[in-house]
């Protein structure tokens, strides 16, 4: 069949979507095994595979857009809509987690002693590391907004500064989250409370790591002058995703740490 002209880029075959999907699955298994008290080696290897797959996939996309010029206006608009729909799907995912939080906490059954958190499970104080992490993520959102506006004004130096600050704050957040996991007095097996806590904060942590990867790639591209005042879709996508992660954490802080605590 003869193909007509169209404004879209017909992508070539790529193994990275499959590798990324498998890596995400094995990472979930590795995290579960680690939280059950076993070694974290499998989780770390899966995380490494995930990061490599993501890097290779984004490398190909950057080559097609920046160096080969395959991303027409229609392609850019399609990618923008795809990012928005992806974030919307993530909203639905976290909505299901928050629904579970309030359903169980407001209707504890007899297996939980008709109380939540159940007797014997000591919840974490929301005024410790959780509150500090909240301030850190809010600050990272401010610094990222500063970087975004600086880029739109053509101030590359200030944009780089804002990105570096944002990434450093994200790394500090993840470090404190890991410390909190090690110092937590309960595990994922300690009733529904432990399961909800680790699943919700764990999935958020995975999204933070993904956001850090996206921000790091955007910083690298910013240094290499891949963005301009009018063309910055990759930067905007990482910024939108990071702000989404910030908002999710605010709901986690309110529901998991304050409400359930």
- Biggest sheet details: none
Helix/strand structural class: mainly alpha
Q: How many structural domains in the coordinates?
A: 2
How much helix is in the residues?
over 70%
The CA-CA distance between the termini, in Å, is 63 Å
The value of Rg in angstroms is 21 Å
CATH class of the largest domain: Mainly Alpha
Topology, number of strands: 0
Q: From the 3D structure, determine the CATH topology of the largest domain.
A: Four Helix Bundle (Hemerythrin (Met), subunit A)
CATH architecture tag of the largest domain: Up-down Bundle
List keywords for this structure.
Four Helix Bundle (Hemerythrin (Met), subunit A), mainly alpha, about 260 residues, Cyt_c_oxase_su3_dom, about 0% strand, Helix Hairpins, 2 domains, single chain
Q: How are the secondary structure elements laid out?
A:
Blueprint: H1 16-35, H2 41-67, H3 73-106, H4 129-152, H5 156-183, H6 191-223, H7 233-259
Summarize the structure.
The protein is mainly α and 261 residues long.
Description:
The protein is mainly alpha-helical and 261 residues long. It has 2 domains: 56 residues, Helix Hairpins; 186 residues, Up-down Bundle (Four Helix Bundle (Hemerythrin (Met), subunit A)), CATH 1.20.120. The chain is built from 7 helices and no strands. The longest helix is centred in the middle third of the chain and has 34 residues. The radius of gyration is 21 Å and the shape is globular. It starts with 15 loop residues before the first helix and ends with a helix. The relative contact order is 0.12.
